[in-house]
Design a protein that fits this description.
Length: 191
């Protein structure tokens, strides 16, 4: 099963993707997690990329292309995956769709997490205290949300228009277990 999650930062899509991937026994493919893992080193490039991430801005489409291509081609994706945090720009979505086309793959389900930005701000402040993520403080929330509105929202709109039969909107303000139940129901119906 191949699933794409859309939603602003702090919408809880990472938590839901983790739970759902475990339940379906597929890969949770979070580009944010991959980047944080990859950029642990102290070399100049890692430091520069970490700075961009910490500021709430997006890394270049070219960097993401290399990361995602390598992952999608690897065996870990054979069973299926949940894409969490990719595609985030129109260029990235074009790359993903052409990858799917040239490899004869189909996207099964697209889930779009909707949430009030005020609630996102509260959640991110809470998460920054718990996880100590450098990109989770009030100063950068605005940038992250702005990037979402400018770059990623148009991508989700594109998918909602072009994948009408398998695009679902989720009310992300609900409790974690309620959302998870809803996702599982959507998937059951789609099978
Ligand atoms: P996330 O954990 O998904 O919120 O990602 C954390 C940060 O990693 C983002 O704010 C970006 O700086 C970077 N990042 C993750 N995924 C992407 C992507 N698809 N395109 C560009 N930058 C990304």
């Amino acid at each position: 099963m191949k699933i794409v999650f859309f939603g602003p930062p702090g919408s809880g899509k990472g938590t839901q993707a983790k739970l759902l991937a475990k339940k379906l026994n597929i890969l949770h493919l979070s580009t944010g997690d991959i980047l944080r893992e990859k950029l642990r080193g102290g070399d100049a490039l890692s430091i520069k990329l970490k700075q961009i991430m910490s500021s709430g801005n997006l890394l270049s489409d070219e960097i993401l292309k290399q990361i995602i291509y390598y992952k999608l081609m690897s065996k870990v994706c054979n069973n299926g995956f949940i894409l969490d945090g990719y595609p985030r720009t129109i260029t990235q979505s074009e790359f993903l769709l052409s990858f799917f086309k040239s490899n004869n793959l189909n996207l099964d389900i697209i889930l779009d997490f909707k949430i009030d930005f005020k609630l996102v701000e509260q959640r991110i402040i809470f998460r920054s205290k718990q996880e100590q993520r450098s990109d989770d403080n009030l100063d950068v929330i605005k940038t992250r949300l702005d990037k979402y509105v400018q770059e990623t929202y148009p991508v989700s709109q594109f998918f909602s228009k072009n994948f009408t039969h398998n695009f679902f909107t989720i009310d992300a303000s609900q409790e974690v277990h309620k959302i998870q139940k809803e996702l599982i129901n959507i998937i059951k119906k789609g099978q």
